[in-house]
Amino acid sequence: MGVRRSARDWGVDAALVAGAAVLGGLFLLSTVTAEPLPPTLPPLGLDIGIGVAACVAVLLFRRRWPVALALACIPVALISSAAMGPTALAVFTVAAYRSWRVTAAVAGAHLLMNVLVLEFAPITQRQYVETVVTMLLLDTALVATGMLVRSQRMLVRSLQDRARQAEEGQRLRVEEARHLERERLAREMHDVLAHRISLLAVHAGALEFRRTATAEEARAAGVIRQSAYDALEDLREVLGMLRGTPGGADPERPQPTLADLPALVEESRRAGMRVVLDDRLGKPDPVPAGIGRHVYRIVQEGLTNARKHAPGAEVRVTLTAPDQATEADPAAADQLAIEVVNPMPLGIATAEIPGAGAGLIGLRERLDLIGGRLEHERTPGGDFRLRAWIPWRA
């Protein structure tokens, strides 16, 4: 047990010691009013002084040395009736803070010492049996209550540990989702830049070997071409380290664009989903490739969540151009809006709704990086709605 105690701990200890003092006073009262008086009864003032000293010792040391305190109080209680209350509290403390084996040993020593003293007391056989039974019941109640308190304390600590572990696990999942989304964005950026830099290198090479180019222009074009090749090699090296895959894997692969969205919807339909695509953007060509990739990923995650949490339900995907913002949301006037809506199954738990996993955490990370925003909520009509806004110049 820790030595330092909080104000609450001191309050609890003071209340318990006050109860023990009252119990010791009742024992003392029953002793001084007994007929005949016990021959070993100390003077009343001494008895009270011993009881007060026992209360102070229990208050100060019950948490630090419960076993030693109980073993010291047991023989004292044999000569002082006022110390019986603090002794009972000491036995209770052992049960609350130590194992059941130690508790059984201390309680057994308490009961055994009282029984041995009663053997030499001038009482009848009936009084002897009644006293022994009373002490046995008292020790049993003290031990059972103390062990119940100990079990409750251990349960609370276990639940707190589990809560901390669950919180840490959730934090790690969130961090992993953010990391994976940033990694995916880095790969997409590599593919885009690789294409652009390759074109730059080709044009620089053509300029370098153009017949009408001056020597200075040819040297400048050669520097541009070589720098473009070096930048492309650096990109490939960085992506290789990011992937952590053996060399030789081709980092350049086609990235999805807005033109691939109908194929994604059709693939979901073939998997058994009922998907309605409401595309209000017109032709996909005017949409920049970067924005198209983000739109594709957002719709892909929305369909994945709908398939996972609402299988068989109709899913509506709506794409809105920046010039079609409504009066209810004028802030979206310069943003492309994506909305995925699907009914929520009846009886679904809050922790199981779409968006409770790491997928939407990754989408939020993606949109935060490009200045967009993401919302997901349960509508009054019982649907789950995922909405995202992407700046048109993202």
Description:
The chain has 394 residues and is of the alpha+beta class. Strands 1-2-3-5-4 form a five-stranded mixed β-sheet, with helices on one face. The radius of gyration is 40 Å and the shape is elongated. The protein has ten helices and five strands, in the order ααααααααβαββαββ. β4 and β5 (383-391) form a beta hairpin. The longest helix is centred in the middle third of the chain and has 84 residues, at 125-208. The relative contact order is 0.06.
Keywords:
alpha+beta; single chain; 394 residues; five-stranded mixed sheet
How would you state the average pLDDT, rounded? 76
**Rough outline:** elongated
**Alpha-carbon distance between the two ends:** 58 Å
Strand-pairing-aware structural class: alpha+beta
Helix content: 55-70%
Give the SSE string. Answer: HHHHHHHHEHEEHEE
Biggest sheet descriptor: 5 strands, mixed
Strand fraction: 5-15%
Low confidence ranges: 245-252, 348-356
| Total number of strands | 5
What order do the strands of the largest sheet run in, or round the barrel if closed? 1-2-3-5-4
Instruction: State Rg.
Output: 40 Å
User: Helical stretch count?
Assistant: 10
